[in-house]
Amino acid sequence: MSITTFLQRRGLSLEYAIYDNWPKVPIEAIEEDKRPRFLSLRESIKLYCSKPISLYAVSKQTEVPESTLAYYFGRALEIDDDGRIVGERAFVRFMYRKGYEAHSDSNEGLAGQFQRLLSKHPILSEIVLKCVKKGESVALTHRAFKEALYELGFTDDDYPLDSDSQGEWSVKKLRKDLQKEHFRDAALAEGGEDAARNADVSQALQHLFKVTRPYQRIELDAHVLKAFFTVEIEELDGTVRTAVLKRLYVIVAIDTWSRAIVGYHISLNAQPTIEDVASCLAHVLDPELRNHSQILGYISKQGMGLPDEVVSRTRFRAFTELALDNALAHTSPALHKNLIGSVCSTINLGKSRHPQGRPLIEGWFKLLKKFLADPLPSATGSHPKDPKRRKPRTKAKHYQISLHDLETLMESVIREYNHQHPESTTGQSPLEKLKRFLLRSVGLTRRLRHGDRGLNFLYQRFYTATIAGSVKLGKRPYIQFMSATYRNEQLSVMGPLLGKKVTLKVDIRDLRCIEAILPTGKSIGILRATGGWALTPHSLQTRRAIVRHRNRGRVSNSIGDQVAAYAESIAGAKKRNANAPNVMTRINQLVARGLARDAENLDAETQPASHNASLKTWLDIGSGGDLEGEESWN
Q1: Cα R_g (the chain), whole angstroms
Q2: Nearest CA among 401, 411, 404, 412 for reference residue 376
Q3: What mean pLDDT comes out for the span 519-541?
Q4: Checking phi first, is residue 203 left (phi over 0); if not, alpha (psi -120 to 50) or beta?
């Protein structure tokens, strides 16, 4: 019989007639005493596949019996569990065997009867699997198995209840096989969450490519600081009191290749928000947004700091992959879209509560806890081995451990870490390793486009709204968004657009102004909020909090400054809110940043625009040795 006829009868593809398409077995993986037999069979079958020759002719040439060749050739073309043919694995003795199948219902021989029982009643396997996921013992699993047999109508005279062990050994073996098959569920039941995380480590560590250069992969995560810090808040009567902040998060970004900390942000929210993540990424892309010397109060020694203070070419450097966990603030589709559109970054969302996927940033958080939080008198701790502090809230007030002190400590810890010489970076500090690489590298460097270097894209969101108004009541066209009315001169004369849908371009840092865009792509211009919403800078988060506060009847003033009324309501509440210091501090920071942006925009309007701005590109050629200067090609 020819090989083509053989394949057609089995319904296999004719590509298997070519021996090179068969799955191979390395000769080194076979024991030495089994190699001669394997080689003999392999050469005989290979000869049969390569020439139009019969098995009888092959048997005459190789002196291998024709029946043996036919048997192993047929077994090599059987479909294995992986969906491929067995191939050369069939030539290895005792490596490939077909499972035993019982073909008789007689109890004279019990071999294969248990598998036959499971095939007839699949619910038995499901019951054992359910016990495996619950982590029940062999005895409890066997008891549930017997109860299921009785419910199916089995009696003590039927197999396996008629045996001495009543099938206990078979159930034990089935339980062990199911544990191996459902590894993660079994690990969760037997060892808890830690074992389940270790079982997922192979999935959590899946990255898109190997890191070979700086800023190729950035790991970003948030960490709660187990310590109290204070802030000064001005009361309604003008007095200043010291309040204790509830709890703070620090969001840190680390470069995987050099292991340098490239940016951080301190969050005052109960949980990190999208705006907090965007602020940290803004610090990564443009570290000059934070005045490090002003925070420290002194100039640190040379060679210490963040990358931009040592290597000037790291500013506006785009990264390729951003490794995150599945926290709520990290899963924002709008943030992902803005990053991929402007930074050309690939978002790698690992599993939440699986630190194995981001080992560098998780390891750095341990150092942060050891050198920043634990030594403080106001440390709270969360583990029996953590240092115990009596009355940490009182000590935070007594020693005046303020939010500014936290920023100073963060700067000091990051500078010391970037300047030290860990063993994992071949004796070089992260900054030295980064600087040496940029000194030797020549070629294209990915940077932000000139139009994106304001980093406004990180805070942009788009919403849909309807142009409202009424001819009967004489209300000119306006747009209602988040309980605020927005108008401008151009919109007020667009009466025919009443009832039309528009897209709102919103900067979540400041909702006093938004941009409206028609379906045709034409911009209506910048719309300004009216009334009390236009007086004080406020973010989208603050707007939502004020609206929620007002709907609950806690803010009575609906005419004046909405942000000021909200702040007065929180500060003057009879029942102190533990989160009030965080809210007040966050509002004060937002107001200060908003006024600073207003001043910058006013300065930009008074200065003439550069006619070469559109010629900026996002690909710069590395200069090789000029690390302190600007890029050589703009």
Answers
A1: 35
A2: 401
A3: 90
A4: alpha
256 with 404, same domain: the answer is yes
End-of-domain residue from the set 418, 452, 486: 452
Residue 24, number of CB atoms within 10 A of its CB: 11
CA dist 217 and 211 (Å) reads 7
Specify the DSSP class assigned to residue 36: H
Same domain, 190 and 329: no
In a domain, 614, yes or no: no
Residues 137 and 166 in one domain: yes
- In a shared domain, residues 220 and 186: no
The pLDDT of residue 517 is 92
Q: Establish if 224 belongs to a structural domain.
A: yes
- Residue 101 inside a domain? The answer is no
Do 250 and 371 lie in one domain? The reply is yes
pLDDT value, residue 205: 45
Nearest to 174 by CA among 184, 186, 156, 162: 186
Helix ranges (H only) for 156-266 are 168-181, 183-199, 201-204
pLDDT digits (tens, 9 = 90+) for 152-197: 889 888 888 888 888 888 899 999 888 888 887 887 787 776 666 6
Kindly state the tokens that stand for 74.
């047929």
pTM exceeding 0.90: no
Say if residue 260 is in the same domain as residue 351: yes
- Cα(322)–Cα(335) distance, integer angstroms: 12
Task: Name the strand (E) or helix (H) holding 310.
Answer: helix 307-310
> Across the strands, what pairs with 242?
232
Structural domain includes residue 617: no
| Tokens at 199, concatenated | 């079982």
The pLDDT of residue 277 is: 92
Domains of the chain: total: 4
Taking alpha carbons only, the member of 431, 440, 435, 449 closest to residue 620 is 449
Percent of the chain with pLDDT over 90: 20
C-alpha–C-alpha distance, residues 419 and 430, integer Å: 7
56, 91, 126 - which closes a domain? 91
Same domain, 325 and 348: yes
Query: Given the DSSP bridges, would you call strands 484-487 and 346-349 parallel, antiparallel or unpaired?
Result: unpaired
Report the range of poorest mean pLDDT among 216-225, 284-293, 355-364.
284-293
Amino acid at 25: V
Distances (CA, A) of 337 to 334, 343, 460: 5, 10, 10
CA quadruple 398, 402, 407, 410: dihedral, nearest 10:
20
Q: With beta carbons less than 8 A apart as the criterion, state whether 310 and 431 touch.
A: yes
**Domain containing residue 17:** 3-91
* Token digits of residue 477: 């066209």
Judge if 144 and 126 occupy the same domain: yes
Q: Residue 165: CA atoms inside 13 Å, Cβ hemisphere, count?
A: 9
Q: Residue 569 in contact with residue 552, Cβ under 8 Å?
A: no
